Protein backbone atom coordinates (compact mmCIF):
# COMPACT_ATOMS: atom_id res chain seq x y z
CA UNK A 1 0.00 0.00 0.00
CA UNK A 2 1.42 3.38 -0.98
CA UNK A 3 1.48 6.43 1.27
CA UNK A 4 -1.35 7.98 -0.72
CA UNK A 5 -3.62 4.99 -0.04
CA UNK A 6 -2.71 4.59 3.65
CA UNK A 7 -4.82 6.28 6.30
CA UNK A 8 -2.86 8.19 8.97
CA UNK A 9 -1.44 6.02 11.73
CA UNK A 10 -3.52 7.73 14.43
CA UNK A 11 -6.75 6.88 12.63
CA UNK A 12 -5.66 3.30 11.96
CA UNK A 13 -4.63 2.80 15.58
CA UNK A 14 -7.89 4.26 16.90
CA UNK A 15 -9.84 1.80 14.74
CA UNK A 16 -7.67 -1.13 15.86
CA UNK A 17 -8.11 -0.21 19.53
CA UNK A 18 -11.87 -0.03 19.06
CA UNK A 19 -11.93 -3.40 17.31
CA UNK A 20 -9.52 -5.38 19.49
CA UNK A 21 -9.06 -3.46 22.72
CA UNK A 22 -6.27 -1.06 23.74
CA UNK A 23 -3.50 -3.66 24.02
CA UNK A 24 -0.09 -3.79 22.37
CA UNK A 25 1.76 -7.09 22.78
CA UNK A 26 5.48 -6.61 23.18
CA UNK A 27 7.71 -9.12 21.40
CA UNK A 28 10.75 -9.16 23.67
CA UNK A 29 12.79 -12.35 23.08
CA UNK A 30 14.93 -12.25 26.22
CA UNK A 31 17.38 -15.12 26.52
CA UNK A 32 15.51 -16.26 29.63
CA UNK A 33 12.20 -16.38 27.75
CA UNK A 34 13.76 -18.35 24.90
CA UNK A 35 15.00 -20.83 27.48
CA UNK A 36 11.59 -21.02 29.18
CA UNK A 37 10.07 -21.84 25.81
CA UNK A 38 12.63 -24.60 25.25
CA UNK A 39 14.30 -22.66 22.44
CA UNK A 40 17.96 -22.07 21.67
CA UNK A 41 19.41 -18.60 22.17
CA UNK A 42 20.25 -18.11 18.51
CA UNK A 43 18.62 -16.78 15.36
CA UNK A 44 16.57 -19.93 14.80
CA UNK A 45 15.22 -19.89 18.36
CA UNK A 46 14.49 -16.20 17.93
CA UNK A 47 12.60 -16.86 14.71
CA UNK A 48 10.45 -19.62 16.21
CA UNK A 49 9.66 -17.42 19.21
CA UNK A 50 8.74 -14.28 17.25
CA UNK A 51 6.68 -16.00 14.58
CA UNK A 52 4.84 -18.08 17.19
CA UNK A 53 3.80 -14.86 18.92
CA UNK A 54 2.64 -13.46 15.59
CA UNK A 55 0.69 -16.63 14.84
CA UNK A 56 -1.06 -16.31 18.19
CA UNK A 57 -1.96 -12.62 18.19
CA UNK A 58 -1.76 -11.21 14.66
CA UNK A 59 -5.14 -9.84 13.62
CA UNK A 60 -6.40 -10.21 17.20
CA UNK A 61 -4.75 -7.30 19.06
CA UNK A 62 -4.44 -3.60 18.29
CA UNK A 63 -0.68 -3.77 17.76
CA UNK A 64 2.51 -5.67 18.37
CA UNK A 65 5.77 -4.08 19.52
CA UNK A 66 8.97 -5.94 18.67
CA UNK A 67 11.95 -4.67 20.66
CA UNK A 68 14.71 -4.22 18.08
CA UNK A 69 17.59 -4.81 20.50
CA UNK A 70 16.63 -8.43 21.12
CA UNK A 71 16.76 -9.06 17.39
CA UNK A 72 19.92 -7.05 16.76
CA UNK A 73 21.85 -9.02 19.39
CA UNK A 74 21.77 -11.94 16.95
CA UNK A 75 23.40 -9.92 14.18
CA UNK A 76 22.24 -9.87 10.57
CA UNK A 77 20.25 -13.09 10.97
CA UNK A 78 18.37 -11.53 13.88
CA UNK A 79 17.59 -8.41 11.87
CA UNK A 80 16.30 -10.68 9.09
CA UNK A 81 13.87 -12.20 11.62
CA UNK A 82 12.73 -8.70 12.57
CA UNK A 83 12.03 -8.07 8.89
CA UNK A 84 9.87 -11.22 8.90
CA UNK A 85 7.91 -9.92 11.90
CA UNK A 86 7.29 -6.59 10.19
CA UNK A 87 6.21 -8.39 7.01
CA UNK A 88 3.87 -10.66 9.01
CA UNK A 89 2.24 -7.60 10.53
CA UNK A 90 1.74 -6.10 7.10
CA UNK A 91 0.30 -9.33 5.68
CA UNK A 92 -2.14 -9.83 8.57
CA UNK A 93 -3.21 -6.21 8.92
CA UNK A 94 -1.64 -5.96 12.38
CA UNK A 95 -0.08 -2.64 13.34
CA UNK A 96 3.62 -2.92 14.16
CA UNK A 97 5.22 -0.45 16.55
CA UNK A 98 8.97 -0.92 16.22
CA UNK A 99 10.61 -0.22 19.57
CA UNK A 100 14.03 1.05 18.54
CA UNK A 101 14.18 4.40 20.42
CA UNK A 102 16.25 6.06 17.71
CA UNK A 103 17.40 9.64 18.16
CA UNK A 104 20.15 11.55 16.38
CA UNK A 105 20.72 14.68 14.31
CA UNK A 106 20.73 15.73 10.70
CA UNK A 107 21.52 13.19 8.01
CA UNK A 108 21.87 10.41 10.60
CA UNK A 109 18.33 10.92 11.87
CA UNK A 110 17.19 11.07 8.27
CA UNK A 111 18.83 7.71 7.62
CA UNK A 112 17.13 6.17 10.68
CA UNK A 113 13.82 7.53 9.43
CA UNK A 114 14.36 5.98 6.01
CA UNK A 115 15.26 2.63 7.56
CA UNK A 116 12.15 2.39 9.72
CA UNK A 117 9.52 4.60 8.06
CA UNK A 118 10.14 4.68 4.29
CA UNK A 119 7.86 2.78 1.92
CA UNK A 120 9.80 -0.14 0.49
CA UNK A 121 12.18 -0.55 3.43
CA UNK A 122 12.02 -4.12 4.83
CA UNK A 123 11.98 -2.63 8.34
CA UNK A 124 9.26 -0.04 7.67
CA UNK A 125 6.83 -0.42 10.57
CA UNK A 126 3.59 1.43 11.22
CA UNK A 127 5.21 3.45 13.99
CA UNK A 128 8.62 3.91 15.59
CA UNK A 129 9.69 4.83 19.12
CA UNK A 130 12.10 7.76 19.14
CA UNK A 131 14.16 9.70 21.68
CA UNK A 132 13.87 13.52 21.59
CA UNK A 133 16.69 14.24 24.03
CA UNK A 134 18.95 15.86 21.46
CA UNK A 135 16.12 18.39 21.18
CA UNK A 136 12.65 17.73 19.79
CA UNK A 137 13.63 19.43 16.54
CA UNK A 138 16.26 16.74 15.94
CA UNK A 139 13.33 14.40 15.19
CA UNK A 140 12.12 16.51 12.26
CA UNK A 141 13.27 14.04 9.55
CA UNK A 142 11.33 11.24 11.29
CA UNK A 143 8.29 13.45 11.89
CA UNK A 144 8.21 14.57 8.27
CA UNK A 145 8.56 11.05 6.85
CA UNK A 146 6.12 9.50 9.32
CA UNK A 147 3.40 12.03 8.54
CA UNK A 148 3.94 11.95 4.79
CA UNK A 149 3.80 8.14 4.68
CA UNK A 150 0.81 7.59 6.98
CA UNK A 151 3.00 6.29 9.79
CA UNK A 152 3.50 7.43 13.37
CA UNK A 153 6.01 8.07 16.13
CA UNK A 154 6.01 7.46 19.87
CA UNK A 155 8.23 10.05 21.53
CA UNK A 156 9.82 9.21 24.88
CA UNK A 157 8.27 11.56 27.44
CA UNK A 158 7.89 10.21 30.99
CA UNK A 159 9.55 6.83 31.36
CA UNK A 160 9.55 4.53 34.37
CA UNK A 161 13.30 3.84 34.58
CA UNK A 162 14.84 5.28 37.76
CA UNK A 163 17.27 7.50 35.82
CA UNK A 164 14.62 9.12 33.63
CA UNK A 165 13.84 11.99 35.97
CA UNK A 166 17.37 13.39 35.60
CA UNK A 167 16.45 14.68 32.14
CA UNK A 168 12.68 14.47 31.91
CA UNK A 169 11.93 16.33 35.16
CA UNK A 170 14.61 18.97 34.61
CA UNK A 171 13.52 22.61 34.46
CA UNK A 172 13.76 24.57 31.23
CA UNK A 173 14.67 28.22 30.89
CA UNK A 174 11.00 29.23 31.10
CA UNK A 175 10.63 27.18 34.32
CA UNK A 176 8.63 24.41 32.71
CA UNK A 177 9.99 20.88 32.50
CA UNK A 178 11.58 18.96 29.68
CA UNK A 179 8.79 16.36 29.74
CA UNK A 180 6.13 19.07 29.52
CA UNK A 181 7.94 20.61 26.56
CA UNK A 182 8.10 17.25 24.74
CA UNK A 183 4.37 16.73 25.27
CA UNK A 184 3.54 20.23 24.08
CA UNK A 185 5.57 19.77 20.89
CA UNK A 186 3.75 16.50 20.15
CA UNK A 187 0.39 18.15 20.81
CA UNK A 188 1.20 20.91 18.31
CA UNK A 189 1.88 18.31 15.62
CA UNK A 190 -1.48 16.62 16.33
CA UNK A 191 -3.58 19.78 16.22
CA UNK A 192 -6.91 19.29 14.43
CA UNK A 193 -6.27 15.58 13.68
CA UNK A 194 -9.28 13.28 14.04
CA UNK A 195 -9.94 10.89 15.67
CA UNK A 196 -6.39 11.41 16.96
CA UNK A 197 -3.01 12.41 15.64
CA UNK A 198 -0.08 10.17 14.74
CA UNK A 199 2.62 11.62 17.01
CA UNK A 200 2.26 9.85 20.34
CA UNK A 201 4.15 9.74 23.61
CA UNK A 202 5.73 6.95 25.62
CA UNK A 203 4.55 7.30 29.21
CA UNK A 204 5.29 4.58 31.75
CA UNK A 205 2.24 3.10 33.40
CA UNK A 206 4.04 2.96 36.76
CA UNK A 207 5.17 6.61 37.07
CA UNK A 208 2.50 7.60 39.59
CA UNK A 209 1.91 11.36 39.74
CA UNK A 210 4.94 12.32 37.66
CA UNK A 211 2.82 14.01 34.97
CA UNK A 212 1.20 16.28 37.56
CA UNK A 213 4.52 17.01 39.31
CA UNK A 214 6.18 18.00 36.04
CA UNK A 215 3.22 19.94 34.69
CA UNK A 216 2.98 17.59 31.72
CA UNK A 217 -0.36 17.71 29.91
CA UNK A 218 -0.90 14.24 28.45
CA UNK A 219 -3.95 15.35 26.46
CA UNK A 220 -1.91 15.64 23.25
CA UNK A 221 -4.61 14.39 20.84
CA UNK A 222 -2.36 11.45 20.08
CA UNK A 223 -1.77 7.93 21.36
CA UNK A 224 -0.02 7.24 24.66
CA UNK A 225 2.05 4.06 24.64
CA UNK A 226 2.12 2.78 28.21
CA UNK A 227 4.71 0.11 29.07
CA UNK A 228 4.43 -1.48 32.49
CA UNK A 229 0.91 -2.92 32.37
CA UNK A 230 0.39 -6.40 33.79
CA UNK A 231 3.54 -8.20 34.95
CA UNK A 232 5.24 -4.91 35.84
CA UNK A 233 2.47 -3.96 38.23
CA UNK A 234 0.15 -1.37 36.66
CA UNK A 235 -3.56 -2.07 36.97
CA UNK A 236 -6.72 0.01 36.81
CA UNK A 237 -5.87 2.24 39.77
CA UNK A 238 -2.38 3.01 38.49
CA UNK A 239 -3.62 3.75 34.98
CA UNK A 240 -6.25 6.15 36.33
CA UNK A 241 -3.66 7.92 38.49
CA UNK A 242 -1.15 8.33 35.68
CA UNK A 243 -3.39 9.19 32.74
CA UNK A 244 -6.57 10.63 34.21
CA UNK A 245 -8.84 12.06 31.53
CA UNK A 246 -6.39 10.98 28.79
CA UNK A 247 -6.97 7.29 29.51
CA UNK A 248 -8.91 6.63 26.32
CA UNK A 249 -5.83 7.53 24.28
CA UNK A 250 -3.71 4.90 26.04
CA UNK A 251 -2.32 1.87 24.23
CA UNK A 252 -1.32 -0.45 27.07
CA UNK A 253 1.79 -2.48 26.38
CA UNK A 254 2.27 -5.92 27.92
CA UNK A 255 5.23 -8.16 27.16
CA UNK A 256 6.13 -10.70 29.83
CA UNK A 257 2.56 -10.94 31.09
CA UNK A 258 1.54 -12.40 27.72
CA UNK A 259 4.77 -14.06 26.56
CA UNK A 260 5.09 -16.23 29.67
CA UNK A 261 2.04 -18.15 28.44
CA UNK A 262 4.03 -19.53 25.49
CA UNK A 263 5.03 -21.47 23.57
CA UNK A 264 1.48 -22.84 23.23
CA UNK A 265 -0.33 -20.74 20.63
CA UNK A 266 -3.76 -21.20 22.18
CA UNK A 267 -2.45 -20.17 25.61
CA UNK A 268 -0.76 -17.08 24.18
CA UNK A 269 -3.93 -16.13 22.33
CA UNK A 270 -6.12 -16.61 25.39
CA UNK A 271 -3.76 -14.64 27.63
CA UNK A 272 -3.58 -11.78 25.14
CA UNK A 273 -7.37 -11.70 24.88
CA UNK A 274 -7.73 -11.54 28.66
CA UNK A 275 -5.10 -8.78 28.86
CA UNK A 276 -6.90 -6.78 26.17
CA UNK A 277 -10.21 -7.13 28.02
CA UNK A 278 -8.58 -6.04 31.29
CA UNK A 279 -7.00 -3.03 29.60
CA UNK A 280 -10.32 -2.08 28.03
CA UNK A 281 -12.02 -2.00 31.44
CA UNK A 282 -9.09 -0.31 33.20
CA UNK A 283 -8.96 2.45 30.60
CA UNK A 284 -12.70 3.12 30.60
CA UNK A 285 -13.35 1.71 27.14
CA UNK A 286 -15.82 -1.02 28.17
Automatic annotation (TrEMBL):
Pfam families: OMPdecase. The keyword Lyase applies. InterPro entries: Aldolase_TIM, OMPdecase_AS, OMPdecase_type-2, OMPdeCOase_dom, RibuloseP-bd_barrel. It comes from the Bacteria. It is an enzyme of class 4 (lyase). The active site is at residue 101. Keywords: Decarboxylase, Lyase, Pyrimidine biosynthesis. Belongs to the OMP decarboxylase family. Type 2 subfamily. This is Orotidine 5'-phosphate decarboxylase.
